[in-house]
Design goal:
Distance between the termini of chain B: 35 Å
Order of helices and strands of chain B: EEEEEEEEEEE
Mean pLDDT of chain A: 95
Oligomer: heterodimer
Largest sheet of chain B: 7 strands, mixed
Mean pLDDT of chain B: 97
Structural class of chain A: mainly beta
Largest interface: A-B, 23 and 24 residues
Number of helices of chain A: 0
Radius of gyration of chain B: 13 Å
Number of strands of chain B: 11
Number of helices of chain B: 0
Low-confidence stretches of chain B: none
């Protein structure tokens, strides 16, 4: 059974870079059938899609975050990562990683989420 | 960007009753729509994809319908564990993938 686990910086200062990793267990990140996604949820609000990376490293980013965002895959560690630069308080949220099918990007497996707070 | 609008924002229902949740897209998304359930402090869970196909392990009391711009999630007989927030998400025209604002189903 595939499981995802987020980890990374829980507290980030404004203007710095937020870095998160999603570890994949119970399956291979290199599977050609799936791609990998980041979603976030600000406190008390709804879900916001951040970006998507395929097993081969092709990326699609939210237009509102694209200029600050980098996603990558590390096949040797079976994990994928997110880096968001120049953060502000508006980036405070619970960040989730998820698995999507290659053809249809809905999320069928989710991590438990990790809280990131942007504050000085 | 396709805007997804859910209604109502809050639905108060008694256990055992039927709940009907709506999701509208700003343009056609064909049947490329998913529904998720989220309970407090938990990650969302996939309920429905392809507008009407239940995900693995989802009880038959959950059903989805619709295509184009109008979609419905129906819970035929609410159980205590069904009180939660429900989100729709389109994956027809992206990036970006977009979600509705959510419908909270609470106890009447």
């Amino acid at each position: 059974q595939l499981q995802l686990q987020e980890s990374g910086s829980g507290l980030v200062k404004p203007s710095q870079t937020l870095s998160l990793t999603c570890a994949v267990s119970g399956g291979s990140i290199s599977s050609g059938d799936y791609s990998w996604t980041w979603i976030r949820q600000p406190p008390g609000k709804g879900l916001e899609w951040i970006g998507y990376i395929s097993h081969s490293g092709n990326t699609y980013y939210s237009p509102s975050l694209e200029s600050r965002l980098t996603m990558s895959v590390d096949r040797s560690k079976n994990q994928f990562s997110l880096r968001l630069m120049s953060v502000t308080a508006a980036d405070t949220a619970v960040y989730y990683c998820g698995r999507t099918s290659l053809a249809y990007p809905f999320m069928d497996v989710w991590g438990q989420g990790t809280t990131v707070t942007v504050s000085s | 960007e396709i805007v997804m609008t859910q209604s109502p924002a809050t639905l108060s229902v008694s256990s055992g009753e039927r709940a009907t949740l709506s999701c509208r897209a700003s343009q056609s998304v064909s049947s490329n729509l998913a529904w998720y359930q989220q309970k407090p402090g938990q990650a969302p869970r996939l309920l429905i994809y392809g507008a009407s196909t239940r995900a693995t392990g989802i009880p038959a009391r959950f059903s989805g319908s619709g295509s184009g711009t109008e979609f419905t999630l129906t819970i035929s007989s609410l159980q205590s564990e069904d009180f939660a927030v429900y989100y729709c998400q389109q994956y027809d025209n992206w990036p970006p993938l977009t979600f509705g604002g959510g419908t909270t189903v609470d106890i009447k």
